[in-house]
C-alpha cells in the first residue's frame, strides 16, 4: 500500500510540472511573435557597431598602410626639349605590391624634389590599378617652379652615385563596393642604378639601393681621340676629336650645346664644345670641337719643360649648356660641379691624333 501511494504522489507532481513548463514556452513564443522586430533591430545595431568601424575606420587605415608599403620600379626616365622654365618628362615604371587588396588609385598631382630641399615642380601621376607588378607610364611637360631647387637636384644627380628624392601628394582609392578612401602618397625614393630598375619606396625614408642611379660624376670620362687641325675652322675650332662619356643611370637627358673650359695647372688654355649633347644610358662616344691656345700648350712641353714627355694633365670644367639659343642655368650649375681630369698626349695629337 505504501509503495503504491508513493508512486502516486510522484505521478501527480510530474503532471503538475509539465503544464507549467509548457505555459512558459507558449508565453515566450507569444512574446517573440509580438516583439520580433525589436530583436531584429537590436541585431542590426550590433552588426553595425562591429562592421561600420571596420569599413570607416579600419579600411582607410588598411588602405593607407597598403599605399605606404607599395613600391614603384622605374624602368627609364627621359628629360628632353628643355627650356628656361620646363623640360619634357617621360617615364616608364611598374607598380608593385604584395597586398591581398588590388585597389584603383585615381590620377593625382604630386610635388617632387631632392630630399631635404624645396620642391622644384609638380608631376601628374597616372591612375593605376595596383597589383603584383603592373606597368605604367606618363609623358608631360614639367614646369620648373623653383629653378634653384631644380639646379641643386641636377648637380646632385650628376655628381653622385645615388640621391634620395621625395614625392608628396594625395588621391582617392577605390576597392570594389567599399567606400572611396582618401589616401596620402608621401614617399622618398632612391635614384640609383646601372641602367637597371630602381625603386620608389615608403615614406619611412628607407630604401633598398641598387649599385647606383645618379650619373656618378661621369666617372670614366675620357678623350679617346684628339687631333690638331692644320687650319682654323669657321666655328673657331683648331682641333677636334672624340670624347667618351659613360652614363650608368637609366636616364636620358638632352642638354643642347655644352661647352667646357680646359685648364692646365689652373691656367685656362681653351674650351671644348659638344654639339647637341644627348646623354643616353650606357656608353656615349661623341664628337668634340676645341679651341686651344696652342702656343700656351707648346710652352709646357719639350726638353727642360714641366711636361717634357708631351703629356699634359687637363682639368675640364663645365661652362655653358645652350638649347635653342637659351642658357639652361640648371644644367650649367650641375656641370660646374662635376669637373673631369684627363691626360692629353700633345705629341701624338700633333702627328694626327692621340
Concise account of the structure shown:
The protein is of the alpha+beta class and 354 residues long. It is built from five helices and 18 strands.
Protein described:
With about 350 residues, this protein is of the alpha+beta class. It contains five helices and 18 strands. A hairpin with a 2-residue loop joins β14 and β15. α2 runs parallel beside α4. The longest helix has about 70 residues. About 30% of the residues are buried. About 10% of the residues have low confidence.
Largest sheet: 12 strands, mixed
As a whole number of angstroms, the C-alpha radius of gyration is 37 Å
* Contiguous helical run count: 5
Q: How large a portion of the residues is in β-strands, by DSSP E? A: 35-45%
Low-confidence stretches: 4-9, 51-57, 193-212
> Element order, helices and strands?
HEEEEEEEHEEEEEEEEHEEHEH
Helix content bin: 25-40%
**Distance, first to last CA:** 139 Å
Shape: rod-shaped
Strand segment tally: 18
The computed structural class is alpha+beta
Give the overall average pLDDT.
Answer: 79
